[in-house]
From TrEMBL:
<feature type="transmembrane region" description="Helical">
    <location>
        <begin position="6"/>
        <end position="32"/>
    </location>
</feature>
<protein>
    <recommendedName>
        <fullName>THH1/TOM1/TOM3 domain-containing protein</fullName>
    </recommendedName>
</protein>
<feature type="transmembrane region" description="Helical">
    <location>
        <begin position="44"/>
        <end position="64"/>
    </location>
</feature>
<feature type="transmembrane region" description="Helical">
    <location>
        <begin position="96"/>
        <end position="117"/>
    </location>
</feature>
<keyword id="KW-0812">Transmembrane</keyword>
<feature type="transmembrane region" description="Helical">
    <location>
        <begin position="190"/>
        <end position="211"/>
    </location>
</feature>
<feature type="transmembrane region" description="Helical">
    <location>
        <begin position="253"/>
        <end position="278"/>
    </location>
</feature>
<keyword id="KW-1133">Transmembrane helix</keyword>
<feature type="transmembrane region" description="Helical">
    <location>
        <begin position="129"/>
        <end position="151"/>
    </location>
</feature>
<keyword id="KW-0472">Membrane</keyword>
<feature type="region of interest" description="Disordered">
    <location>
        <begin position="298"/>
        <end position="325"/>
    </location>
</feature>
<feature type="transmembrane region" description="Helical">
    <location>
        <begin position="223"/>
        <end position="247"/>
    </location>
</feature>
Length: 325
């Protein structure tokens, strides 16, 4: 159990880092929301604050589900506070984690990431209700399929154990003190892989549209960093999840694969918050401050050259201004 506790500590440390980054992102979003009330330059950019806020909330919820699936964490932190779960309850807990993580939270923040990338080259302003509805409607098919296969059994055809195993009890741990280890069944991985294929195709289309219209080198670099993270990380995550089904969760090989899968999703979340939340909001606030500082100069007849003034912040999923921020 010491080995698992060390791994659990690794998970908790990274999740705590992601939660701190998420809180920092929420502070930026709320600051922009507050500043936009007194600055007309920020009002268009602020129209996406609901989507960004939902993006961060999905990441936070994904982080919390990853903490709760850890066996040692449940034993030492949950059991002293709550009644000890029976083995069937722990098994259902693993199923719930699987459905929420692979069926809703991770697909949810990936879809929002794609949405923010896509709207960065569109001139129309999206309503908050439409944006939120778009996210939930996009997540619903995968979520329902995961529920069907994980909780309802899916196909009536009897498949090998790796296809449907969502939990596992070590051979030496079958007593009353047994802990259930969560697993990734192949069927859930296949469903998530199908989502990944569709997502990558849509991401590539949006990526090329954005790159073709962006002329700023720093912004292009951020877009390429985001693209490399997704295009390399997502297929690798699906591949490793599929491979993990052939090892038992109490084996070191499985734990190495699980840690890598976690780090890939962690990277998606951290890079997404940095590029799609923190950096564009910081740019928009800086541009708004520059415009306010130049206003007295214009009133005094100075600084009339429009080329010397920064453009006002526009609605954009990536930066404070479109194409040439």
């Amino acid at each position: 159990m010491i080995f698992f506790s060390a791994i659990d500590f690794f998970y908790v440390a990274f999740i705590a880092t992601l939660l701190v980054l998420s809180v920092f992102s929420i502070c930026f979003i709320l600051l922009l929301r507050f500043k936009s009330r007194s600055s007309r330059h920020l009002q268009n950019f602020n129209s996406l604050w609901t989507v960004r806020f939902l993006f961060v909330i999905f990441i936070i919820l994904w982080s919390l589900t990853e903490v709760l699936r850890l066996p040692s964490f449940r034993r030492f932190y949950l059991y002293p506070l709550f009644p000890r779960l029976t083995l069937p309850q722990q098994a259902n807990f693993c199923k719930l984690h699987l459905v929420l993580s692979l069926g809703f939270f991770e697909p949810g923040f990936l879809i929002i990431l794609l949405f923010l990338l896509d709207v960065s080259v569109k001139k129309t302003t999206h309503k908050s209700f439409f944006s939120v509805f778009y996210v939930f409607a996009s997540c619903l098919p995968l979520f329902l399929l995961q529920v069907y296969f994980v909780f309802l059994g899916g196909f009536k055809v009897r498949l090998p154990q790796p296809f449907h195993r969502t939990w596992f009890i070590p051979d030496m741990d079958h007593g009353n003190e047994a802990l259930v280890f969560c697993d990734y069944p192949l069927l859930s991985t296949i469903l998530f892989g199908l989502f990944g294929v569709i997502f990558i195709l849509c991401f590539l289309l949006s990526f090329w549209k954005v790159v073709s219209q962006v002329i700023n080198k720093a912004l292009k670099l951020r877009i390429f960093a985001l693209a490399l993270t997704i295009l390399i990380g997502l297929p690798l995550q699906v591949l490793l999840m599929g491979m993990s089904a052939f090892w038992r969760p109490d084996k070191p090989t499985y734990n190495g694969i699980a840690v890598t899968v976690f780090l890939i999703t962690f990277t998606f979340a951290a890079v997404g918050e940095g590029i799609l939340v923190i950096k564009p909001i910081a740019d928009s606030l800086a541009a708004a401050v520059a415009l306010v500082e130049q206003q007295p100069l214009r009133e005094n007849g100075q600084g009339d050259d429009e080329s010397s003034s920064p453009p006002p912040p526009a609605e954009d999923g990536l930066t404070a201004t479109k194409c040439d921020a």
